[in-house]
Design goal:
- Helices cover 31% and strands 26% of the residues.
- By secondary structure, the chain is an alpha/beta fold.
- It has 2 domains: 2-18 and 233-422, Alpha-beta prism (UDP-n-acetylglucosamine1-carboxyvinyl-transferase, Chain); 22-230, Enolpyruvate transferase domain (UDP-n-acetylglucosamine1-carboxyvinyl-transferase, Chain), CATH 3.65.10.
- The strands form 6 sheets. The chain has a 4-stranded mixed sheet with strand order 22-23-1-24, with helices on one face. It has a 4-stranded mixed sheet with strand order 2-15-17-16, covered by helices on one side.
- Helix 12 links the parallel strand 22 and strand 23.
- Helix 1 packs parallel to helix 2 and helix 1 (22-31) packs parallel to helix 7 (192-203).
- The longest helix is centred in the middle third of the chain and has 14 residues, at 235-248.
- The two termini are 16 Å apart.
- Bound molecules: uridine-diphosphate-N-acetylglucosamine.
- The site of uridine-diphosphate-N-acetylglucosamine (UD1) has 20 residues, from helix 1, helix 5 and helix 6.
Amino acid sequence: MEVLRLTGPCRLNGVVEVRGAKNSVLKLMAATLLAPGRSTIVNVPAILDVTIMVRLLERLGCTIDYDAQAGEVSIDVPAAPGIRADYELVRAMRASISVLGPLVGRMGQAQVALPGGDAIGSRGLDLHEAGLKEMGAEVHLDHGYFVAAAPHGLYGTHFHLDFPSVGATENLVMAAVLADGTTVLDNAAKEPEIVDICTMLVEMGADIRGIGTSQLTISGVSELHPVTHRCVGDRIVAGSWAFAAVITGGSIEVHGAGTELLPHVFEKLETAGAVVERVEAVGGGFRVTGPTRPHSVRISTLPYPGFPTDLQPFAIALNAVADGEGYVTENLFEARWRFVNELARLGAQVSVDGNHALITGVPELSGAEVEASDIRAGAALAIAGLAATGVSEISGVSHIDRGYEFFVDKLKSLGADIERIERATVLDID
Ligand code: UD1
């Protein structure tokens, strides 16, 4: 079993580069299916999920050149791509469902395995389904597959999303760009990653108005063309490093994503006692310097521009070492609390009631063996482990690899005592 072995306490200090957003690049890659020919995406992070999306698109018939080091993926889309996303790949990465919209939109049919249970909640697909039906698709479930067919093509409609779902907004926009007529999506998600995808689609020839607002108006066009597009910086990774500076009482300069991508987050860090400065860098930049010990904060996760759910584990970790009592309310994913039990192994005092957590800060956490249950929980546990006294071992490392490129190398460059090791488990012993 592979684990991260780290020794704290340690104040993280230095500069880190952030590349493109995981939650954007995977959808940009899916969007290339909308136009035959070679599209290229630059500023691509070297993360496991990109490799999984490469495999998925290859199975759909694309020819792909992926240079992880250079951060470039070039996708040659055939005239008639395949239409089936297998369970094996969808199970490995839920974002695989983002091929649904492009395939129905362009090929008039798609078969995508249902993602099934997820470590951070049930995460339904009802809005994806309702929107596609409104656009004229026939949708049914068949042996674990979401099967959509629009033999005569999709048509424009007016659809209200009951909740501004990121995934449903993306799928419906990608389905609507080639539909017959105009589609209006009300209460659409407006995360920077949605803006990025809409921007790429417009570069490909799509007609989308209202980008960055909660009403998107998409007038279908007959065809799109391939493009080269630069992926927006990863605000969640950038935010993770900002929290890391405050949790460990260090100072981290981040290049590649600006503070404007994370409204409310920096105000909370300032309330905790941090100093935030803007820094000139390609794609934006900032420096966060933490106090010796942060003050506790009150945080409620909400769709953009609210506090992002993906930074919620870091908010709990911050409160765990803060001076005072902090509160965190999770409004998006009901099961994001698995992380709390692991943090408790480091000595954090957290009590959960429904979707609220009350965290009583302690002066010192102590190193322990913990397990990452998802991408953000894994990274937050590593940062909490670095703030703790003694040795911690974090298992479930593959989760971290799904979202954070060169995680161990970056932490080392910030001064952390951390290594990736193979550890025998009782099951390995004769
Ligand atoms: C995306 C991000 C994820 C982030 C989340 C919210 C990717 C790969 N992942 O996930 O990191 O945490 O946005 O910012 O981009 N829901 C339904 N029915 C639907 C769709 C969603 O009930 O049809 C519910 C989900 O169960 C969940 C909530 O809406 O409780 C949020 O889901 P959504 O915004 O769609 O998030 P994802 O696109 O899955």
